[in-house]
Amino acid sequence: MRRVDAGAPRRAVPRRAFLASLGCAKNLIDSEVMLGRLAGQGWEITARAADADAVIVNTCAFIDPAKAESTDTILEYAAAKRDGQRLIVAGCLAQRYGAQLRELIPEIDAVVGTGAFPKIPEIIAEVEAGLRPLHLEDRDAYVERLGFLPRVVTTPRASAYLKISEGCNHTCSFCIIPQLRGVGKSRTIPSLVEEARALAEGGVKELILVAQDSSDYGRDIGLRDGLARLIEALEDVDGICWIRILYLYPTSVTPAIIAAMRASSKVVPYVDMPLQHAHPEILKAMHRPPQPQRYLELFAALREALPAATIRSTFIVGFPSESEAHFHYLLTFLESACLDRVGFFPYSREEGTDAYEREGQVAERVKRRRLALARETQRRISARVNSSRVGERLDVLIEGKRLVAASSPLRGLVGERLAHVGRSQREAPGVDGLVYLSGEHTVGDFVEATIVGHTDFDRVARQLNRVPSPA
Ligand code: SF4
Q1: Which residue has the higher pLDDT, 365 or 408?
Q2: How far apart are CA 98 and CA 111, in angstroms?
Q3: Residue 7 pLDDT
Q4: Ligand 1 centre and the CA of 64: distance in Å?
Q5: pLDDT at 1 (0 to 100)
Q6: Is 283 in the pocket of ligand 1 (CB under 6 A)?
Q7: What are phi and psi of 346, to 5 degrees?
Q8: Within a 13 Å sphere around the CA of 213, how many CA atoms are in the beta-carbon half?
Q9: What would the mean pLDDT of 337-361 be, rounded to a whole number?
Q10: What is the pLDDT confidence band of residue 9, given thresholds at 50, 70 and 90?
Q11: Which of 13, 19, 75, 244 is 20 to 30 A from 397 via CA?
């Protein structure tokens, strides 16, 4: 863990906080801000909930399985809660169901909604004063302060997320996020550059830009082609070697954004663009742009501008009214798009969304069958892509070590029981698998390597050279 910008009044016996962060990278940043504020107030951060004076669960409420995981986690810490320990529930589930959670789970001492993260020390102080607070304030003030708040970075040493905006201006009919996080609210370029500099000074080499829709960045604060302007501004931040942009929206990726990605020496040729479906009728029902042909043209333009681009997307199967014909259209689209990596999710019926009430809900067994078929289709496509890349040279950012089980297909390729792992420009953290390397390496270094093999998910490389930085 690294601390960025946290001046600290210290107590003789520091109190300890434990935080469980669930859900996405955007939620992780909110967790890191809470830890930063607590560390700034003299709290120690512990990895053991049993040792903590305050246990904080930062929850996710995107879809039913995420809500179930969040609720189970709260219940787990509630059951283990000891005398004098505080249990704080934060994040999206707290924002949506905070009052009910507090009523149903008496062990919960405080609820921290999506606008109240930085107030965590003050909220714990309220608990210590005998209150049981519920903080569901507006999140705009939080977003404005984001670059100026201390943060404890918890990602592997050389990488950190940078939240460029909060909320979303789209109205996808399956999605509850705009109700939980509000409409799009961008941070300013100076605040983002300042935070990027602080992260770089703390040893970060890879910045991962996140938002609900990164390509829409800046529109609400009057910036034209805001993401392009931001890329240009971040180009001057010393120490940052890679900038990875996640969550692009197909119709807001403009030629200016593509040109800025191409011109930058730091933006990696990695395109993450959730499409959710390909059939125009389903896209229309999802309230998304029903233009699959335009998606294919956009991929072609991106591949031309960013040679060797890695393209990742996500799709939902079993959306209400999705017929066999719609689903097979999606499979055909996958073959045409030839994407590097794809995540598939079964449609999850979320109360409060437009699609919740739609007719034609698809049976769970049909969703499961379609999910398996979609994954198998993409597995074959990704295997072809991976095979075509054996022999390619790339820089790998070393993140740590992993045990390689004797039964794993990786073992024969790596040849070691304990191998170093890292990521190249082609792998985003958490979703894309890893690059395995034999030999001795230093965490946080870039190693020049060549790909010698792969499994369905991971790749194996052999070192050519250790390089201080690819930039
Ligand atoms: S783009 Fe659609 S799916 Fe993504 S956060 Fe916005 S409303 Fe939800």
Answers
A1: 365
A2: 6
A3: 47
A4: 16
A5: 62
A6: no
A7: -75, 140
A8: 27
A9: 95
A10: low
A11: 19
CB-based contacts of 178, cutoff 8 Å, min separation 6:
167, 168, 169, 170, 171
Q: Is 212 in the pocket of ligand 1 (CB under 6 A)?
A: yes
pLDDT beyond 90 at 146: no
How many DSSP H helices and E strands does the chain contain?
A: 14, 21
Q: Is the pLDDT of residue 468 over 70?
A: no
The strand pair at 2-4 and 16-21 is best described as unpaired
Residue 2 three-state SS: strand
Comparing 263 with 7, which gets the higher pLDDT?
Answer: 263
Bridge-based pairing of strands 151-153 and 2-4 is antiparallel
Q: Which residue's C-alpha comes closest to atom 5 of ligand 1?
A: 212
Cβ contacts of residue 300 below 8 Å, gap of 6+?
none
User: Is the model's pLDDT at 377 over the cut of 50?
Assistant: yes
Ligand 1 contacts CB of residue 213 (under 6 A) = yes
DSSP lists the bridge partners of residue 310 as 270
Q: Indicate whether residue 158 lines ligand 1 (CB < 6 A).
A: no
The response to whether residue 26 sits with its C-beta less than 6 Å from ligand 1 reads no
Segment 436-458 mean pLDDT:
93
Predicted confidence at residue 62, as pLDDT, reads 87
Whether 443 contacts 426, CB under 8 Å? no
Cβ-Cβ contacts under 8 Å for 1 (sequence gap 6 or more)? 35, 45, 152, 153, 154
d(C-alpha 22, C-alpha 67), whole Å: 10
CA dihedral of residues 124, 130, 132, 133 (deg, nearest 10) = -60
Where does residue 350 rank: exposed (0-12), middle (13-18), buried (19+ CB within 10 A)?
buried
Residue nearest to atom 2 of ligand 1 (CA): 172
Q: What's the pLDDT score for residue 6?
A: 42
Which of these, 318, 406, 401, 310, lies nearest to 364 by C-alpha position? 318
- Burial of 377 from C-beta contacts in 10 A (0-12 / 13-18 / 19+): middle
8-state DSSP, 156: -
What is the share, in percent, of the chain residues with pLDDT greater than 90?
Answer: 86
In short, whether 177's Cβ falls inside 6 Å of ligand 1 is yes
| Residue in 266, 272, 329 with CA at minimum distance from that of residue 302 | 272
* Widest distance between CA atoms in the chain: 67
Say whether pLDDT at 78 is over 80.
yes
- Stated pTM of the model: 0.91
The pLDDT of residue 10 is 54
